[in-house]
Amino acid sequence: MRKRIEYIDVVETLAIFFVVCCHNTALLGQSVLATAILQFTTTVAVPLFFMANGALLMSRPLDLKKHLTKTGMLVIAVFAWRLLTWFLVMPFDTKTYSQIGAVNLINYLLGGTTSAYIPVEDYWFMYRLIAIYLFLPIIKLVYNHDSKVFKYLMVIMFVAAFVVTEIDFIFKLASKWYGIGLISVGSFRDKIFPLSLIADSGFYFLAGDFLHRNYYQKEISKKSRIHLAIVAVAAYALLLFQKLLQQGTLSGSWQRLDNDYLRIGTLVLASSIYALFANTDFSNKKHLNRYCQFVSVRTMNIYMIHMYLIYVFNRLLVPKTSFRGVGIYLLSTLGIAIVGLLVTEPFTYIGFIRKILGLQPRR
């Protein structure tokens, strides 16, 4: 059994809480503080997950057979959860019953949409993760045998994901302010760069390995840690400023920053935070490690069911709750994460269901 890396358990525990924060917004309100919280959680949660995955998988030898088996089981789990969520929504929306034609069902399982709302839009993360896993053997081969080609791959992924996005954002603002036609560099990128689908998530994945190697159990000065914190704050301020430019206000109904995962500010913010955690010694935090390890192993369990739990929460409890604000928002978010653990945990003891749904831990 591999030794646990404590900081990764902590990072993944925070990341899954932030993910639930991103989607459980009904009770948060429309204040500037609400926008600030959502802007932070929506831009760091998923990158932290990809970074943690990269730190773990890039540092281990790759057994191709086991890796492909794991990837295949992940695909099956996504199909199974989409099907299960479909049926779980039926008691709340009878329109879902009309969607069970064979063709509609197959298209839905393959990632398509239905006329009835089914809370599986967050599964895009799973598709990106599967895409990275499919390319991982090639990436590992280049990584292990040709550092120049690997650096070249990192450069073109960075340009394709982050530089192009920032250029397109400038063009979009110019179009809005000066009434000129909208120019999109991204459309050209998508035509010439075959890995555009995973340019951002793949870069986060590989950045996690880089940060792990350079900060985990490394001696850095207190001044360097302060610099990382300052850089994180500056990157976050940049994202808020871009949000202000896009929307004209930092209050009111929530509107995501366009292409928020592909922003340089997001990359710098997530990287700085990850580096700080990687460089923090958690070995003496026994109670924290015990709780975080328990949650970290089960992050996928929470991830796959949390949108459905939020769907039920919004339909049954939110209309009966008059309170709005940060406190009840954070409390309800924590409650949904805990319910996700409680609901899925019994099924981890049932081998067939555990395998089909991709639940952890393995018993």
TrEMBL record:
Any one Gene Ontology BP term: enterobacterial common antigen biosynthetic process
A GO term, aspect molecular function: O-acetyltransferase activity
Domain Acyltransferase: 6-339
InterPro entries recorded: Acyl_transf_3_dom
Swiss-Prot/TrEMBL keywords: Cell membrane, Membrane, Transmembrane, Transmembrane helix
Pfam family, one: Acyl_transf_3
Compartments where located: Cell membrane
GO cellular component: plasma membrane
Membrane-related topology note: Multi-pass membrane protein
Membrane-spanning residues: 7-26, 32-59, 71-89, 125-143, 150-171, 191-212, 224-241, 261-279, 291-314, 326-353
Family recorded in the similarity comment: Belongs to the acyltransferase 3 family.
Record-given protein name: Acyltransferase 3 domain-containing protein
